């Protein structure tokens, strides 16, 4: 569906709003909501078909409550799909602590637009029922999003770098005009968004600016969180259709255990390994920038990046006359594995030393509902 005469939601900008508009990393709950919707949708079979089939075999009945509240299209309670910062686990914990008044308000607003499941009428007053919903949300996250979170973060980082280049080349208006031409159009000073639900309305930013966030699972439908704080949020889809992004892996790659030998090791000489590390440290780098960072010639950087891309370690996209390189989940997994080189038997006490080593665990407040 193209804009043309389509009913759109209109976001009105001032010069101050343009100056305060920025692109943010994906938010776990918002991306989880997009994944739940995509699971129930039949669109983009090439990209999501295998992922859907695998997910349906792994979901247990606890997921039903979540799917009832976040349908394929239409309104969903914002406390389940809000834009918020932090890691996925922190976001899921915040849902468990959501005020009961917020639950009542969100469900009442949803009921204005579509029927609410009968069991949900008691959600705010039944702590056991709310606990079941939160347990189901964690289960759905573990099946749908957690195995692919590194992929989501990688794709979003590459896109954010691309958007930064667009601002440098043509200003914020160039970024807004190229977000997703099929559904988002910049008609100065108004950003017109064609919602899948046909939602119509006007939002005046009034100096707050707009927060833009890319989405892997929101494959073709923008979403708007008009009451997010400190500024409203627009989630825009990555890519322009099935052919723009590769099929979502059913089983994302995982780092090999310590001591194992990766099948892609023969690809990595010293320079090529340095190229992969540099791309991982600087996602969205151009070939010329890679060459400058590494102190090698641009043709050499291009050759190594091409080999890494052929091996599935690097993804390359074209932005006008420039190609931009970013790591794939496989490339990141290989670098993670490389932290544990093949070695002989551990000396006595090494296992305890590993336990004592400091580390960080990475887990792969609006009041209105998000329109889609």
Explain what the structure shows.
By secondary structure, this protein is of the alpha/beta class. Helix content is 44%, strand content 12%. The chain contains 14 helices and 11 strands. The protein has helices at residues 15-20, 28-40, 45-58, 63-69, 78-81, 88-96, 100-111, 127-145, 149-177, 270-281, 287-294, 298-310, 329-337, 350-356; strands at 9-12, 22-23, 184-187, 190-193, 201-204, 211-215, 223-225, 233-237, 285-286, 314-319, 322-327. The strands form 3 sheets. The chain has a 4-stranded mixed sheet with strand order 3-4-1-5. Strands 2-6-8-7 form a 4-stranded mixed sheet. A 3-stranded antiparallel sheet has the order 9-11-10, with helices on both faces. A hairpin with a 2-residue loop joins strand 10 (314-319) and strand 11. Helix 2 packs across helix 8 (127-145), helix 10 (270-281) crosses helix 12 (298-310) and helix 11 (287-294) packs across helix 12 (298-310).
Itemize the secondary structure elements and their pairings.
Layout (H helix, E strand, L loop, with lengths): L8 E4 L2 H6 L1 E2 L4 H13 L4 H14 L4 H7 L8 H4 L6 H9 L3 H12 L15 H19 L3 H29 L6 E4 L2 E4 L7 E4 L6 E5 L7 E3 L7 E5 L32 H12 L3 E2 H8 L3 H13 L3 E6 L2 E6 L1 H9 L12 H7 L16
Parallel strand pairs: 1-5, 2-6, 6-8
Antiparallel strand pairs: 1-4, 3-4, 7-8, 9-11, 10-11
Helix pairs in contact: 2-8, 4-8, 10-12, 11-12
């Amino acid at each position: 569906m193209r804009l043309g005469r389509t009913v759109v939601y209109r976001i009105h900008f001032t010069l101050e709003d343009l100056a305060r508009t920025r692109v943010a990393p994906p938010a776990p709950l918002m991306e989880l909501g997009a994944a739940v919707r995509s699971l129930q949708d039949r669109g983009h079979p090439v990209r999501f078909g295998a992922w859907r089939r695998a997910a349906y075999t792994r979901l247990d009945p606890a997921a039903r409550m979540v799917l009832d509240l976040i349908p394929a299209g239409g309104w969903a309670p914002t406390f389940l799909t809000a834009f918020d910062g932090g890691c996925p686990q922190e976001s899921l914990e915040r849902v468990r602590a959501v005020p009961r008044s917020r639950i009542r308000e969100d469900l009442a607003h949803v009921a204005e637009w579509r029927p609410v499941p009968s069991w949900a009428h008691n959600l705010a007053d039944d702590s056991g029922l709310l606990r079941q919903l939160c347990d189901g949300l964690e289960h759905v996250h573990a099946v749908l999003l957690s195995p692919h979170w590194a992929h989501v973060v990688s794709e979003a980082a590459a896109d954010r770098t691309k958007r930064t280049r667009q601002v440098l080349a043509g200003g914020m208006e160039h970024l807004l005009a190229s977000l997703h031409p099929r559904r988002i159009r910049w008609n100065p000073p108004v950003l017109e968004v064609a919602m899948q639900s046909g939602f119509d309305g006007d939002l005046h930013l009034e100096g707050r600016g707009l927060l833009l966030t890319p989405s892997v699972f929101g494959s073709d439908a923008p979403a708007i969180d008009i009451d997010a704080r400190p500024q409203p949020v627009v989630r825009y889809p990555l890519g322009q259709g099935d052919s723009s992004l590769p099929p979502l892996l059913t089983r994302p790659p995982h780092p090999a255990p310590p001591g194992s030998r990766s099948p892609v090791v023969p690809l990595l000489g010293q320079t090529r390994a340095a190229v992969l590390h540099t791309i991982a440290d600087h996602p969205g780098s151009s070939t010329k920038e890679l060459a400058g960072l590494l102190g090698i010639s641009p043709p050499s950087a291009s050759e190594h990046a091409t080999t890494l891309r052929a091996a599935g370690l690097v993804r390359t996209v074209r932005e006008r006359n420039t190609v931009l390189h970013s790591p794939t989940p496989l490339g990141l997994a290989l670098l993670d594995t490389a932290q544990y080189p093949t070695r002989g038997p551990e000396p006595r006490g090494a296992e305890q030393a590993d336990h004592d080593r400091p580390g960080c665990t990475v887990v792969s407040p609006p009041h209105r509902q998000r329109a889609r």
